[in-house]
């Protein structure tokens, strides 16, 4: 199946906005419902809700940078990269559908966290998983979008020699 032009643009922008929207709605609920560092065990200690404001990037990296460096590295540079990625998937014609979806998820997640950094000065993280062999640091839905998008792109790249994983391409 090949989808062209405006439908492709609408599809990509819809996925980006869906990811941003889910992320921002979830963070808003958490900001209003949970006190900082409060822990709510949803499924024992396997799935925990909490609220932490992260002033850095992943794992709080960069939180001790000077305000100017933080703006450059955690706001300006990500804006530039996200715009380049969005431009690339909108104009390039031979990406597989899973690659386009993956990049749309990464862009949406990136925008969600970037919005927090610009508007609130920090990113709200609130989820912790502990499933035995899989144990996470605290994260949010934007991080989930970025991770799922990355996995989808990796999957696509691994199977690209045999054609598209879903056997569909946007043109």
Written overview of the protein:
It is a single chain. The protein is mainly α. The chain has helices spanning 5-33, 67-91, 97-120, 141-158; strands at 40-43, 47-54, 123-129. 28% of the residues are buried. The mean pLDDT is 89.
Counting helices, strands and paired strands, the structural category is: mainly alpha
Gyration radius from CA atoms, angstroms: 18 Å
DSSP strand count: 3
The description of the largest β-sheet is:
3 strands, antiparallel
Strand content: 5-15%
Strand order in the largest sheet: 1-2-3
Work out the helicity level.
55-70%
**Intertermini distance:** 9 Å
Low-confidence stretches: none
Mean pLDDT figure:
89
What is the count of DSSP helices, taking H or I runs of 4+ residues? 4
Order of helices and strands: HEEHHEH
The best one-word shape is globular
Keywords:
single chain, about 170 residues, mainly alpha, three-stranded antiparallel beta sheet, 3 strands
Brief description of this entry?
With 171 residues, the chain is mainly α. It is 56% helix and 11% strand.
Write the layout of secondary structure elements.
Layout: H1 5-33, E1 40-43, E2 47-54, H2 67-91, H3 97-120, E3 123-129, H4 141-158
Antiparallel strand pairs: 1-2, 2-3
